[in-house]
Design goal:
alpha/beta, five-stranded mixed sheet, 166 residues, Lysozyme-like, 5 helices, two-stranded antiparallel sheet, 24% helix
Amino acid sequence: MDLRGKLPTRQGAAPYLLRSLADLQAVHWLVVHHTDVGPARPTALEVAQYQVGPTAHLPFPSIAYHLFVEEDGTFEQTQDFLAVPWSQGDGSPYSKQGVAIYNWWGLSICFSGQDPTACQIATIQRARDWVRQVVGNPALPVIGHRDVSPTECPGDLWDQWKASVA
């Protein structure tokens, strides 16, 4: 499902920067994230509302992920691949145009929940294959957010299931 342009945005905020087609072809990773809210499994709409709301930890202009996987395995595109959302910048060694380089180097996919269901893992695999086709890199690595930033994301069980989406 295509949710680009249909989710809430932060009023008055400039949109995310856009990468060039050359930058898109030079993407290093597909980065897996999770919503990390215990047993809750918020929807893409709920995540977008939080991220552009007054209690967000950063003033995100819009949802910070390119792709989102709902609890039932529904796969949604939430940002254009040319957008550079702020999803994995902590720990970046430098910035480009004021945005941490790890954001430029990655496309992001977030699943709803603390740990993925089998259905969500299958969807991440399908999304991975689609992203690899779109960017023209059949070997594009899939990594966890924690692999590039100081975080526990994408959950305590990442080491147990990451090989299934690599």
